[in-house]
Amino acid sequence: MNDVKTAETVLRVRDLAVEFSLRGSVARAVDGVGFEVRAGEIVGMVGESGSGKSVTMLALLGLVPRPGRVVAGSVRLRDIELGALSLRELARLRGRQMALIPSDAGAALNPVTRIGSQVGEGLAAHLPELPRAERPARILDILKRVGLPRPEQQVRRYPHELSGGMQQRVAVAMGVQLGPDLLIADEPTTALDVTIQAQILQLLLDVREQSGTSILFITHDMTTVAEICDRVLVMYAGQIVESGPVVDVCTAPAHPYTRALLDAIPPLGGDPPERLTTIPGAPPDPRAWPAGCRFAERCRLREQLGNPDKCTSLAPELASDGAGRRSRCHFTGSAAEAVVR
Ligand SMILES: Nc1ncnc2c1ncn2[C@@H]1O[C@H](COP(=O)(O)OP(=O)(O)OP(=O)(O)O)[C@@H](O)[C@H]1O
């Protein structure tokens, strides 16, 4: 595989904003999100419920539901500006160049259509030039590639006759069958038990290894990010608050929110911690974002620093360190932070 640090950019998102108009008020669910995904890279997008991960993902796919609307920003897949495409062109692009692996394949698969036909529908829609007679072999081939046991039998089955892990393998097969540049995996393992989760994560790593596919991996779970991602984008209250290589972010988080997310992970083996911290409080209301830092009310660093006014009066920028890391905190890496550590 290529070195992802020097690989070309597959997805470039700039200043993306999505709003929902709700009975006289406007909720800015995604507020100025920008990031890149390079060829062969697995990028995690992590954050608590409501942080804007799903709405960002839907905006990338051109599927933000009403009353939501993309109000600003640019999304480029290779050299295609997605905002400039017609609905028909976008629909063509989905599946062929950009595909979604849903969180619950059991719910996403059509319950009354056999597995083979469902995989075949994608081929027929996006690859009409493939002769009909060649479809069955191609379907079996892709199902074998994703490790579905006994694919010759499974193609005749309905989704409910497959286990959760097998359903998820079918969803991965449908996502990768046309060799997309970008796979968006939306919490693809949450509905599965732990051993099956590990198998599906390994399958995504295999897909990347074999095809060089880039993956945007959406999750609320830092442990999963640490397991399979190269880089991570940490979302909070509609914005990216930290991004960087996973190893660096997990070993030395720059933003207090990232630190709080990491503190909430139970350790593997070893002695249990004296207390497992959850993050007290709740994110602010997207209909009225606070003027200063959106994490200020819940921030331990701010508390330790004696509640500086700056945190609540001035919104921090997402500052870059020039070496691939970004953080949205007035006091990240500052002398003041060093004192309280
Ligand atoms: N259809 C909708 N109508 C109104 N507001 C919405 C809609 N969908 C999402 N939102 C709002 O957008 C914000 C971001 O939600 P989003 O679903 O993207 O969060 P998330 O990080 O994906 O959370 P989760 O992990 O629970 O899926 C939330 O404040 C949510 O209430």
Give a summary of the structure in a few sentences:
The protein has 341 residues and is α/β, with parallel strands linked by helices. It is 35% helix and 23% strand.
Task: Tell me about this structure.
- By secondary structure, the chain is α/β, with parallel strands linked by helices.
- It has 2 domains: 1-97 and 180-283, P-loop containing nucleotide triphosphate hydrolases (Rossmann fold, 3-Layer(aba) Sandwich); 108-179, no CATH class.
- It is built from 14 helices and 12 strands.
- The protein has helices spanning 53-61, 87-96, 105-108, 115-126, 135-145, 151-154, 164-176, 194-211, 222-228, 246-251, 256-263, 300-304, 309-313, 335-340; strands at 9-22, 25-38, 42-46, 68-77, 80-81, 98-101, 182-186, 214-219, 231-236, 239-245, 319-320, 326-327.
- The strands form 2 sheets. It has an 8-stranded mixed sheet with strand order 6-7-8-3-9-10-12-11, sandwiched between helices.
- Helix 4 (115-126) packs across helix 5 (135-145) and helix 7 (164-176) runs parallel beside helix 8 (194-211).
- The protein is globular.
- The model has no long low-confidence stretch (mean pLDDT 89).
- The structure holds adenosine-5'-triphosphate.
- Adenosine-5'-triphosphate binds at residues 20, 22, 27, 29, 47, 49-55, 65, 68, 220, 286.
- It comes from Acrocarpospora corrugata.
- Pfam families: ABC_tran, oligo_HPY.
- Its main location: membrane.
- GO terms for molecular function: ATP binding; ATP hydrolysis activity.
- It is found in: Cell membrane.
